[in-house]
Write the structure tokens for this entry.
Amino acid sequence: MSETESVLELRAVTKCFGEGDARIEVLKGLDVHVTRGEFVAIMGPSGSGKSTLLNIIGCLDHPTTGAYFLDGEDVGKLSDNRLSTIRNERIGFVFQSFNLVSQLTVLENVEVPFVYRRPHPSGVRERCRALLDSVGLGHRLKHLPSQLSGGERQRVAIARALANDPVLILADEPTGNLDTETGEDVLRLLEGLHAEGRTIVMITHDADVAARANRCIHIQDGRIGEAA
Ligand SMILES: Nc1ncnc2c1ncn2[C@@H]1O[C@H](COP(=O)(O)OP(=O)(O)OP(=O)(O)O)[C@@H](O)[C@H]1O
Ligand SMILES: [Mg+2]
């Protein structure tokens, strides 16, 4: 069982940008381990490397050196194509700016993760409806994102993140564009997902938001600080 308990593991991950004199090392050897069912916050000052780390965890970018295991599979050296398949099948993303497709309805937005899956798994539409129900938006299926409030948009994004039944939910400042009260709804939803056994990694600047997770990893100048 032990290997399936590990959802993500970074070993001595570095990330460099640029060449020659302009080369900078943004991540300086990170070890991060998240087990199934954890709700982990990653905090750190601006420029510390949070987004760079998120891009690697989210299979949007490769580490320069070091290893990355996602759900037991070594994904650190996969081709971009394979990486995008893994991303599509195993990770649910929630972004600060929601990233919904403006021309698609609420229901169609939640179905987006299946666009590249042929044939569509059976019951996709029913599953997406049920997910929208579970985030309190069952009555908004045919609306466009522009017809929703910010909090409602983020709830659609959370439903979309769950559509693939991902092993990992990755949230980047999920309450960053929301007022306190609406942000609170979103945090409660994430806490509910955690209570159901989902694994969540959330990046935030905000200590109050980070406190909602059950563990916080501090990143400073490309290294892990104290883990509370
Ligand atoms: N593609 C890139 N090319 C060169 N440098 C980069 C690149 N991406 C990031 N950096 C540099 O890496 C450092 C860390 O950036 P990163 O975006 O990871 O920080 P962050 O912790 O997410 O900051 P913020 O809280 O402001 O979003 C910064 O100094 C940035 O300039
Ligand atoms: Mg960032």
Observations:
- The beta strands are 6-17, 24-35, 39-43, 65-70, 73-74, 91-94, 168-172, 200-204, 215-220, 223-227.
- The two ends are 26 Å apart (CA to CA).
- Residues 173 and 204 are 5 Å apart (CA to CA).
- The first strand starts at residue 6 and ends at 17.
